[in-house]
Amino acid sequence: MRVLAAMSGGVDSAVAAARAVDAGHEVVGVHLALSRNPGTLRTGARGCCTIEDSMDAQRAANLLGIPYYVWDFSERFKADVVDDFIAEYQAGRTPNPCMRCNEKIKFSALMEKAIALGFDAVCTGHYAKVLTDENGNLELHRASAWAKDQSYVLGVLTADQIAHSMFPLGDTPSKAEIRLEAEARGLTVAQKPDSHDICFIPDGDTKGWLDERLGVSPGDIVDVDGKRLGGHEGTHSFTIGQRKGVGIGIPTPDGRPRFVLEVRPKTNTLVVGPKEALDLRELAGTSFTWAGIAPATLTEAFACHMQVRAHADPVPAMAQLIGEELVLTPDSPLNMVSPGQTAVIYIGTRVLGQVTIARTVSAVERVTA
């Protein structure tokens, strides 16, 4: 097969490309330039997509003896990921830019271009697996090593995208094994640290980054009864479940901490209250996709597991299509989930699909939207 290997400059994508070469595929490496003004060097494990990353990817491609290109996707990345990130926070939601990047850039824009150029598959360093069911249908599954599993951020993939995806690291037991393999191959990125932050906010200061773009907009902090407790400088600086940095001067009578329960951008108000008020009995959204064949009876509730963060534990739930909404009801109340987050749905190890959370229902009968 003709395989386009997406090479970020990290160890995972380098080893994935190497394994694709070993498998006998005709491999071409490509690095995505996602910023018009990329930084020169990384700082520890912060950020990615720097000039240094591009050079690391090129060195790996040269060692593997494969052609290497840099494709400029910066304009689309800004529109589909960066601008979306700003708009979501401005609307009081908590977005996941990695999900949007996979949905709009790596497995949409990149894959579309790859297929147009005659490639059969896009190879990445994600830890996940594509398996075939008894009827010959392709399915997306968790990696063998759940500790490193990255299937959550791939929950946005469609059936067609899965059919053109290749994840050579899916059966690897650990990241340590990948680093040892990289060393044995002579790849200079063998001990390069992972990136853990939002790539376009390399210093990790999300609040400061948003403040620069959205400015200061003073508003009130109130309790669940509407009593004013303090003020803030912009709702975009807060997320559901936040406790630290809220800046309330009035303590609770019992001394218990307060958490952000709601972000109301229309009235520029934050609602705070006790932690138990964050427990949710229902999550729902109209923006959902299926990673392969959808369940046969969506209008009837079916058992599944749902995961709301990349490193969260999956929890048992029921899912059902009610009108235009996909409604998820966890078996036990789920804590600290915000509109804008993505709930990925699993049946066993299979990724069934995902929904962007637009509405939540509190276990104490409070509704946020």
Automatic annotation (TrEMBL):
EC top class, as a word: transferase
Pfam families: tRNA_Me_trans, tRNA_Me_trans_C, tRNA_Me_trans_M
Entry keyword set: ATP-binding, Cytoplasm, Disulfide bond, Nucleotide-binding, RNA-binding, Transferase, tRNA processing, tRNA-binding
Coiled-coil blocks: none
Residue(s) at site: Interaction with tRNA: H126, Q341
Catalytic residue positions: C101 (nucleophile), C199 (cysteine persulfide intermediate)
Reaction(s) this enzyme catalyzes, per UniProt: S-sulfanyl-L-cysteinyl-[protein] + uridine(34) in tRNA + AH2 + ATP = 2-thiouridine(34) in tRNA + L-cysteinyl-[protein] + A + AMP + diphosphate + H(+)
Entry's Gene Ontology cellular component terms: cytoplasm
InterPro entries: MnmA-like (IPR004506), MnmA-like_C (IPR046885), MnmA-like_central (IPR046884), MnmA-like_central_sf (IPR023382), Rossmann-like_a/b/a_fold (IPR014729)
Main location: cytoplasm
Superkingdom as given in the UniProt entry: Bacteria
Domain tRNA-specific 2-thiouridylase MnmA-like C-terminal, first and last residues per copy: 282-356
Biological-process GO terms, alphabetical: tRNA wobble position uridine thiolation
EC numbers for this chain: 2.8.1.13
Stretches the record annotates as Interaction with tRNA: 148-150
Residues that, per the record, bind ATP: A6, M7, S8, G9, G10, V11, D12, S13, L32, G125
Cellular localization per UniProt: Cytoplasm
Molecular function per GO: ATP binding; tRNA binding; tRNA-uridine 2-sulfurtransferase activity
Domain tRNA-specific 2-thiouridylase MnmA-like central: 209-273
Protein task: Catalyzes the 2-thiolation of uridine at the wobble position (U34) of tRNA, leading to the formation of s(2)U34.
Entry's family note: Belongs to the MnmA/TRMU family.
UniProt-recorded name of the protein: tRNA-specific 2-thiouridylase MnmA
Native source species: Alpinimonas psychrophila
Lineage per the UniProt record: Bacteria, Bacillati, Actinomycetota, Actinomycetes, Micrococcales
Record gene name: mnmA
